[in-house]
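Hey team,

Sharing the Aspartate aminotransferase family protein run so nobody has to redo it. Sequence (457 residues) first:
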Amino acid sequence: IPGTTFTGPLTFTEDELAGIRAESVRAYELDRAHVFHSWSAQKQISPMVVSRAQGSYVYDGEGRAFLDFSSQLVNTNIGHQHPVVVEAIKKQADLLTTINPAHANAARSEAARLITERTPEGLDHVFFTNGGADANEHAIRMARLHTGKHKVLSRYRSYHGATALAINVTGDPRRVPNDHGDAGTVHFFGPFLYRSEFDATTEAEETARALRHLERTIQLEGRDTIAAVVLESIPGTAGIMVPSKEYMQGVRELCTRYGIMYIADEVMAGFGRTGKWFAFEHFGVVPDLVTFAKGVNSGYVPLGGVVMSNAILETFADRSYPGGLTYSGHPLACAAAVATLGVMESEDMIENAATLGETVVAPRLAAIAERSPIVGEVRGVGMFWAIELVKDKTTREPLAPYGGSSPEMDAIVGKLKAAGILPFVNFNRLHIVPPLNISAEDLNVGLDVYEKVLVEG
Ligand code: PLP
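Structure output:
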């Protein structure tokens, strides 16, 4: 079967390499002349040209292979260029490339069926968006209209997207320059024992204190003003802090008790990343709204969406939903989703992620943490892991400041890249987030590099 069996890098002929180099030189020059990059000071960047990709590897402008331990932005859950999905996109392109979303279409209907087959009973309808930020915007709009309330609670150390409201609910330093303070958003501290805001020393203490803090926030903000709590089931970009089952069940219970919609942001953690279809399944909770993007079709064509409960659906049974997007449920994106969910299932990718996470990543990272002087903590599940780097294991001072970088961090990233790894880096953390269908051999090749860099320096 293609996909899971891609192991090791491609080799190129001299002619192919010459072609790759020529096109990449031009790509770089035009990029610097005309492309404006996200989250960057435009004069300070030197973007890597990605010329080709297949399976778990990407190739730079020289044709040099990099093992993709980032899955790009944690979205290529089935690896790059899966032939079944590429073929499905081509086939759809021949049939129908775009429709007004007011129409029905086979690709969108089938994608909606397959997605809701995987969400809990009672969450049976999908509103499609173009990505994760707009999925969160729409979920919040639905919650506000459904409850007739306006405030939204979200945690510090979270990421929910870069559009106006999504960046306002985001709880990381990138919110600050974008925060105009007019969106009715309130932040609270979630559980994160390693850097506890509650002076807790055990997981049970952290859970109890974080729940009490959330309840007090709800009470003091006024239960009649709060439409929704939006929460990544496992915060991703902010550090892969796996919460306890008791915390998540407590959040669900507080939302129910105070008439608040619980929005599970599954944009990064969903579609197999944690070894289950959705990360909230680890905690036995059922949200009112689920937002998704990325892994739904591995990002081959932009797609996101909101799955809503039947109670929310009912709000809009005889009342028009005031929102829409020209490309909602785009045929190419939905055809890619149908094929992606198919290969994830037929090639046992989610089981692969769960098993390799438990049997390879967990023990190897634990061994690295034991031996490395700068690894403060490792945590995660499935193909979703964070390595917390510190200057000193006792003080836990981060190797780079929250929201910034440091020469020490840059040096580590440089060594990983020089050894052929494309890492995911966030402030003082390295995230281990390769495709779900990475082979055990490739996974170990990559982890050998992390071990060498973090243990031997
Ligand atoms: N929510 C989470 C949890 C994310 O990780 C992201 C992106 O990384 C988003 C929302 C935003 O998604 P997008 O970049 O597709 O708008």
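The chain has a mean pLDDT of 96.

Ping me if you want the raw files.
A.
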